[in-house]
Structures are given as C-alpha cells and as structure tokens.
Amino acid sequence: MNLTKEDKILEVKNLCTSFFTDEGEVKAVDGVDLSIEKGKTLGIVGESGSGKSITSLSILRLLQEPAGRIKEGEVIFKGEDLVKKTKKQMREIRGNNISMIFQEPMTSLNPTLTCGEQIAESIRIHQKLNKKKAWAKAVDMLKLVGIPSPEKRAKQYPFELSGGMRQRVMIAISLACNPELLIADEPTTALDVTIQAQILELIKNLQKELGTSLMIITHDLGVVAEMCDKVAVMYCGKVVEYADVKTIFTNPKHPYTIGLLNSVPKHDEDVEGDLSIIPGSVPNPFHLPEGCRFAPRCPHAKEICLTKLPHLEETFDGDKVRCWIHSEEWEKQGKAVNAHE
Amino acid sequence: MFLYIVRRIFQTIPVMIGVTLAVFLMMHLIPGDAAKIMAGENANPEQVEQMRENLGLNDPLYEQYFRFIGNAATGDLGNSIRTSRPVTQEIFDSRFWITVQLAIIGTALAVLFGLIAGIISATRKYSFADVSLMVIALFGLSMPNFWLGIMLIYLFSVNLGWLPVAGWGTWEHMILPAITLGTAGAAIIARMTRSSMLEVLDQDYIRTAYAKGVGDKLVIYKHGLRNALIPVVTVVGLQFGSLLGGAVVTETVFAVNGLGRLIIDSIRAHDFPMVQGTILVCAVLFVVVNTIVDISYRLLNKRVDLN
Fold it and tell me: Which chain A residue has the Cα nearest residue B300?
C-alpha cells in the first residue's frame, strides 16, 4: 500500500483554498490530501459545494484571484511544488503536462474560433510547431477522439457541433500535447446519458492508449465505478474517505459515503418505494460546524462529533477515513445525538 | 458571405423608401408655404400661384412623392432657394466630404480611446486606473458638445494659441472639432467595452484558454476582446450616426462649412429643397454605415445566421 514518491504523479498535501467575500471567508477546500499514481485514475466524489472543483482548479492555479486564493499546502507534481511556481512556469505546465476538461462543453469553447484553431493553439504554444503543422496535428487529434470527417469539423465553429462533439473537441484540446495528468471536471454532467457513456469510454480508451493519469471529478457514483482506481469522497471542503474503488462500494466506512451509496436508486428494488436520502442539508459555508462537518446530518453522531473535528486516519485495511466512529473515544460516548432514525 | 452582403444591401431598399417618405412628408407637414417663400415677400397671389404650379405643389401628394424619388434617384434634388444652385452640387462639392471626414476622424478617436480605456478598466477592475477612467468617461458623456467645443477653443486656441479657433483646411483645423465630436462616443465605447469585457472574461472559455497555457495578453486580446467587441461594434455604428447629428452643433461652434452647418443655414433661410436634400443625404449615409456595421458584425460573430 505504501507508495514511493516516484509512483505518484501528483500529491496534494494539506491544500487550503479560500474565497474572500464581503461576508467573510469561505473555506472551499480545507486541508485536502490526495495523491494519484502514474497511469491510474482517482475519482473525487461529493455534492455541489463540497470543494471538488475548487481542488482541481487549485491544482492548476486557475482560481480567480484575488477573490480565491490558495492559503496553504503543497501540490507536488513530479517532485515539484506547483504552488511555488511562477506564473510563467505554470503556463508551461498548463495544457502541456497537466490538462483539464470542463463540465460545460457548450460554454467552454470559444465561440469565435474554429475547433481546429482552438486545438492548434495549445500545440503551437507548447510544441512550438508552425501554423500548418499544428493544424495537421489538430486534425489528427479530432480523428483520435472519434470525430468523423475531421478536416471539415476542424474548420467549423463550436456552435455548429452537438454537445457530445464539443466535449470530444474539448478532450482533443486537453490531450493535444500528451499531458501526463488529465483532470476531468464532471466531463459528462451536461451530456445525454447515451453520449455520457461514449465520452467515458473515449476517455478511458485514450487514457490506456496514452498512459495518462486521470483525476475525475464527479457526483455520479456510476462514473466512479466505471472509471476509477481510487476514490476520495469530499464533504464541505474536506476529504472524508479515501479508498480503493472496490472498498468504497463494498465496505464504505464514513457515514456520508454510506448515505451517498444508499441514495443511489437500485434497479432491482421496488420502484414504488421511497429513495433513501441523507437528512438535512449542507451547512452554511460561513458558519461551519465546530466538530465533524457531517455531524449535524449523521445518524451516528455523538457528543464528540459535534465538538471535535476528526482527523483523516488510516484504518486497519490501509484506507483513510475521517470519522470518530472508528475510534475508541466514540465507543466510550453515550447515545447518538441525532434523532433521525 | 458574398450572398449575405448582397442580401443585406437589398434589405436597405425598404428602409430607403421609408426614409424618403419620412423626409418628403416632413417637409410637407411643417408650417409655412414653400411657394410663398420662394416667390418672395413682395409677390402677389398670382405670382405665388404661378410658383406653386411651377413647383408642382398642386399635384396630388403621391405624384409629388414619386417625382421626388424619381428625381432623387438620378441625383436631382432640386435647386437651392438661397443660392439657386442644384442641391446635390451644394452638398457634394465640399460640404459632404468635410462632414464625413470629421465624422470618420471623430469616430476613429472615439474607438481608439474608448477601446483602450475600456480594456484597461476591465483588466484592472476596481483599481485606481479603472475608477478614474470611468469617472472621466462619465464627464465625457455628460458634457454637451457646444460647451466642450467652446472650452477647447478657449484653452487651446485662445489661451495657449496652439490651434486655430475656427475654420477648415489644414489638419490643425480638424483636431478640436474631432475631439469635440468624438468625446461622448469615446465615453460610451469605453463603458461598453468595459462591461462587455468583464462579462466575457468571466466566461468558461476564458478559463479554458488559461487551462491551455495561453498567456494573459493573448487571452485578453484573442479570446476576450474579439468576443467583447460584438456589442461594441453596434455602439460604434450608432455612434457614427449620432456624430452626423452632433456635427450640426460642432460645425456651428467651429464655423466649419459642413453638412450640419448647411442644414442650420438652410432652415434659417427657409430653403426647403436644401433642407430636404441634406436630411436625405444624412439619412442615407446613416443607413449605409449601419449596413457596413451589420456586415462587420457577421465577420466578428460567426453565430449570426446567414439565412
């Protein structure tokens, strides 16, 4: 289970990213630790506002400064801390070593540039190819992502393409310079279900073909099961569980993960029955609970959960979980405080 | 694209018909008897009637209108009452070109300074530069043309003696009128560019560009400005039109013999054919400029439907 530094392409240590608004500070990402092994896939799961997208934007330092800022922590990519890099050094990494696919293919492409130009742009910047060669490579990329008649499509504008096609173009852009790490921020959320499967299949195949490491951000547990090797479950800016994909589905340890899995409708269940839900709602980011952030919604929460924040502790089988339930203190406590059951 | 341009030009035909109709009816609706004025103060009723007959004012209105556009199509807008010279000659000999020159320089100044100020403001949101530029723009927008013109003359011509007070001929004569004319436009374009740029810089595709490793400058100009210009182009077109109107005041202040001054002088002299002709030429110019704007809009924004 213990990995040497060389096996990890990316290691995020104690990443804290905050947004400073007129109403105060929002700790969007609060002490996140993650790592991705070479050629493997890490999934980050969580509901809206859990900080998963901000984590990925922080890795590439794409936050809208000065409102959003990395307060502390390290992002070690191939042994070097990206947080300490200059703007210029970051530009050389973006699109070249680390690429990103965004959620909305409708708005993520520039409406006034042809698809070919948008792919060729990063090739020209990073590989210093001339216009003609970059264009030829852009057409090749369109072919690689399975777009029929790529020469014709390269000359078209994004509005002339369907959503699935646009996401393919987005993938072509991100893979154009053969990055070592690809971050996909909800790449299929905005697409039709049938297209979703195609896009996931495409990413998976290209990952295998090119040996790219992948970080996939999603709130869809189906995507996680399909794509990931490891999973980090996030809640309110913190990783609450970090484990192998198999463990997450067969033996989840954090009550939030269990709640998430229970709320997925199962096809073999009685369709008439109610879906199970996690009671309550995500706490106000300006007034986060003192103890465990999930405690107000947790069916197992005891006194200690409301007052003390648990650490991300390694369990007996090597996974990590942030919950008092696996500690001796919890055993000593009295009854659960939430009367949801 | 070629087809689009041809179609767009054909689309101006109904507008032109509307324009000629409006100009024609306006001249018939305003009080005052053209025949009486043209015949002179001492004319007897017979002479006025004779004049009315000569001018065709006794014919049915539609006949007069068709004669008017028929003649206008061949470049005949009648003769000026004041000078007895053909109206087209009066307009196109020099006056039209002076006003067009003034409007083009004014627009160029407005676009240049407006865009620069707008981009600086947008990229340095809420900075000292942004706030001061926007305050200056507000001033530029609020100052009436005639007042700004007089102040500029007072400062640069009377006190500093750098530029001529009035008249037309050399490039030095053009500076103050062009600034006077372009200031409001520059202010509008600056504010428009700023808000449009801010909106565009917030778009997802800007983040995509950064994620590709594109540098700040290229992101702002290639990805940002190009998209932000779409609404600005519309404003520039409208601005050019209002510059033609603004020329009336500016040309009077600077004693420039352009179209604006011609309108004023003709109205004062009750020179109906002249007023009618000048307004028609201005209106047609406005339509032409707007057609050019539409076409350039299509060049910028690929999403404008060609059908």
Answer: A112
Backbone conformation region of residue B185, classed left if phi is above 0, alpha if psi is from -120 to 50, else beta: alpha
Domain-located, residue A270: yes
**How many CB atoms are located within 10 Å of the residue B10 CB?**
9
| Locus of tokens 């293919």 | A105
Asked if residue B13 is part of any domain, the answer here is no
Q: What is the pTM of this model?
A: 0.80
A294 is in which domain, residue-wise?
A: 260-332
Provide ipTM, 2 decimals: 0.87
A107 chain-B contacts, CB cut-off 8 A: 203-205
Q: Indicate whether B135 belongs to any domain.
A: yes
Q: Who among A96, A102, A170 is closest to B213 (CB)? A: A96
**What's the average pLDDT block by block, 10 residues per block, for chain A (341 residues)?**
65 92 88 90 89 91 86 91 92 92 88 92 91 93 90 91 89 90 88 84 89 91 90 91 91 89 75 75 84 86 84 82 81 67 44
The residue with tokens 């004669």 is B67
Which residue in A has a C-alpha nearest to residue B226's C-alpha? A112
Q: Which residues numbered 55-74 in A keep a CB inside 8 Å of some CB on B?
A: 60, 62
What 3-state DSSP class applies to A198? helix
Which H or E run contains A102?
Answer: none
Two tokens, residue B284: 């047609």
Domain count, chain A: 2
